[in-house]
Records
---
Amino acid sequence: MPAALPTLAANTFEVVSNDTTSALPANIMESLAPLLGGQFSHLLKVFMVMEKMVGDRLVLNPALILTSFGVLWAVNRVGRQMYSAASGLVDQHLRSYVSISSHDELYLHMIRFLGAQPKLAESLSLTAETISKTAWEEQDDYDLAPTMMPVDGYGEYLNFSNQKAKAPPRFVPAPGAHEFQYCGRTFQLYRRQESSNNAFFIPHFKDRETLIMSCFGRSPEPIKSLLRHVKEEFYLDHHAKTVVKRPSSHGGGHMNEGYGARHSWMLVANRPVRPMKTVVLDDDRKKQLLDDINEYLHPDTPRWYASRGIPLRRGYLFYGPPGTGKTSLSFALAGVFGLDIYVISLLEPSLTEDNLATLFNSLPRRCVVLLEDIDTAGLSRPPDESTPKCRTVESVHEGQGGSGENNGGSGENKGSSDNNGNSAEELRRVLKIQSANSTTKQGISLSGLLNAVDGVASQEGRVLIMTTNKPETLDEALIRPGRVDMQIAFTNASQKQAEELFKRMYEADGTDEQRRLAAERLPTDGTTVKTQQNGYHVHNHSPNLNDESAKLKEKGKEVASSSQVAVPDDEKQDITPAELSIIAEEFAARIPSSMIISPAEIQGFLLKRKRNPRRALAEVGDWVADVIVQKKNRTKTSHM
């Protein structure tokens, strides 16, 4: 009985197969013939022949195969729809989301954090980015080994042509969905590019994208904790840097938004904090300024101001010749108090008064706002109506006619070449004035700036610093008390300041611990100590300090009395702190006491000799003489 079952099943299947096969082509013919209009009858015949051959060879019913595939497709389609519906319900009710715009600082912090995640670095969908570091960021291994190239017999010099080839790209998650883990929790990441359709309904991708973070659960607290960690990690690496921002004219990526967009400021630089001691200014004035800003930024100050009805604002005016340290002090103050600097140029042609007000209103509570060289912005009140107006072109032409009124009352027509020349010159002057008066003034007016600085709707809590080279050209309303609370004067370098500059320039080499210890162990009997630093042998000569002082003073006299100074052979030797003080004093003595040289000029001179303090001392006399001649002749070029 069991042996007969396979035979019975096979016979039954064969009968069913033959019946179905014989009936199927006719059904297909009846169904497709009206649709095809009988034009492709030969194709139908070929199809029936192939269907018959396949059915006989496989002993299977093709109709059943097609039906099975149809059922599987339907099940898959229904399953996908059910999964999509269930996933949508879970995403809507059981997941938390946080979106980050690409024009927010947190976006850059997050991208940097994601690029360091191992799981995301192994993702199959990545975006490669060229690493562009500033001069102040930490160097990589490929930056620490530059190539030395010979230059036409002049020696070997650094060559950085192969640095870009050695610099590896940075890989970050590509636009799309990604997944990573942090503190044992799984997070989903989705990078979405913003796009819009133009007039021809063609999608246009903007220079903007949104970063969407999500996690399972009805609370976004895990995402908030992650974002706090990302910010702390970023600023922990940048705690010793000052952030510099400028207005973003793109308005956060939105067309026609200008400066009025939500994200009106963009990051332009991260600079190392500048020590206050590097600013050339009287110590008492530094202390007074620091105490004033510290009192203003105290957490209890806003309550004190509010109880007395005083606006919470503080303004400072730094004025003095160019190169005296006005901007340097601004950066040093921002570094001392850990504030960001927001730099605004009033000469920006696209900046309007409405934009300026929006920029001031979008400032954070505590920051430094820097308005540089406000004297060049042309901020002044319009002339009073009582001011005598220039003569018109018609009056000039009348003057050429020789009337007595226009000829000094002589009543004679002079008709000389001098009169014609003066009249032509006056005509050009009047035409120039009228052309200037007819041109509509663009940019920021004085009233617009005053309203932005301390108007009714102006932002409070910021530190406003204005710098100028010519304070006498400023309008009184701009620097009145209440807008400018303290004025700091900067002057050219005195001899004491020149000495401080010299010490600061060369004491940096003495901060190396190995050099300091070697200098302290030097014998005082004039012997020579041989040390090795950076792979080179350096001979340190340390004679008696008294003898050295006498020699330096004698050498200084020779330098002062000689126009052609020979550079000492030992200029590359290490210098002790005591010797540095003596050389700095001698250097300062050669700087004119009339304070005609700015600190920036002295610094530029020393930078050309930044490793040779003895050479700087030897050449300062000729340099000072050249600077004096340059200033006397009002030339802008120097031979030193």
---
Amino acid sequence: MIMLAENLGVKVFTATKAKERDALGNQITNWLREANGIELISKQTTQSSDNEYHCLTVTIVYKKS
């Protein structure tokens, strides 16, 4: 099966501050509820840090139906 790029989408959620990181799960859940007719292809969670900040990123690749 060949999947055309026009049928794929990428959504990136990111948060740096603690309060934003705490709310990230709800933000992703709300987006998934509103994104009718998609099929999740992959998801990746990445964390990066420096001396002051901790960035959390969730990347979702999905197929549009």
